[in-house]
Design brief:
This protein is an alpha/beta fold. The chain folds into 2 domains: about 10-175, Rossmann fold, CATH 3.40.50.720; about 180-285, 6-phosphogluconate dehydrogenase C-terminal like domain (6-phosphogluconate dehydrogenase C-terminal fold, Orthogonal Bundle), CATH 1.10.3660.10. The chain has 11 helices and 9 strands. The protein has helices spanning about 15-25, 40-50, 80-85, 105-110, 155-165, 175-200, 210-220, 230-235, 240-260, 260-275, 280-285, and strands at about 10, 35, 55, 70, 95, 115-120, 120-125, 145, 170.
């Protein structure tokens, strides 16, 4: 069994970073945790709830003895945090992150911390309500976490072990493959939700008589724009996915106008595809 690095520093106690700290605290006996967050209320809560052994407002010399540093900050803050880490990251420490795009983070690490032992990761878990107050130890149970390759396979195995300790299922993808896949499976649903909300607002207050279907389909529109829109806007694959969806919507509109039976055929095919695509999703089976 691969040993987990320790101490572990989590820089950024948002929903994902906070949940990671909680999961490791609850499920890895004896692990030492360092938490870093600029928000005083978050730090106070982390201390009060015993989430970390040491809590800091910013990156400092406390991190020099950490075997693993996890960046739980938004994409826009990664470069600044990496620069602040430079004098404090131990030469043999592992560095990972939870950002929803992998290629841009990898480029920033190579530029700002070229000697760092970096293994990118991204848990496909979260929610529209962010922040430490919504974090929970079971957030990753049965969820997929993408871990990216590294020139040091042993480092990848150690990051795998960290995420498996939280209850997650680990898959390996290159940064480019990850960003291409999430453009469709994560970013496109978010963009579709934004579009649905705008259409409903324009269609004679249609949202005022919306039912559960509308609420389910537009839930992602409530994600924090400073986090989600910022990531999606930097994914070069997102616009292609969105245009592909537009073509599918146009095809269905044409079917409604000219051949309603064709729409039923499209729906039957999509239903079968949907069941096959999600057949192995453990989080779906729990619902």
């Amino acid at each position: 069994m691969t040993a987990l690095p320790s101490p572990v520093a989590v820089v950024g106690l948002g929903l994902v970073g906070g949940s990671l700290a909680r999961a490791l605290r609850e499920r890895v006996p004896g692990i030492e945790l360092v938490a870093v967050d600029p928000d005083a209320a978050t730090r106070a809560r982390a201390r009060r709830e015993g989430v970390a052994d040491r809590v800091r407002a910013q990156v400092d010399e406390t991190l020099r003895d950490c075997g693993l540093v996890v960046l739980g900050v938004p994409l826009g803050a990664v470069a600044r945090v990496l620069a602040s880490l430079a004098p404090h990251l131990a030469p043999d420490a592992l560095l990972t992150d939870v950002v929803g795009l992998k290629a841009p983070v990898q480029r920033m690490v190579r530029e700002l911390l070229p000697r760092a032992r970096y293994v990118g990761s991204h848990p496909m878990a979260g929610g529209e309500h962010g922040g430490f107050r919504h974090s929970r130890a079971d957030l990753f149970d049965g969820r997929t976490v993408v871990v990216c390759p590294s020139p040091r396979p042993a480092d990848v195995r150690r990051i795998d072990a960290v995420w498996r300790a939280t209850g997650a299922r680990v898959v390996h993808l290159t940064p480019a493959a990850h960003d291409r896949v999430v453009a469709v499976t994560s970013h496109l649903p978010y963009l579709a939700a934004l579009g649905l909300v705008h259409v409903a607002e324009r269609e004679h207050d249609g949202a005022h008589v919306a039912g559960r279907g509308f609420a389910d389909a537009t839930r992602r529109a409530d994600f924090e724009p400073g986090v989600m829109a910022a990531v999606v806007g930097h994914n070069p694959h997102a616009s292609r996915a969105l245009r592909s969806l537009a073509r599918e919507l146009t095809r269905m509109a044409d079917a409604i106008d000219h051949d309603p039976a064709e729409l039923q055929a499209i729906a039957e095919h999509a239903r079968a595809l949907h069941r096959r695509l999600l057949a192995d999703d453990p989080s779906r089976r729990r619902r």
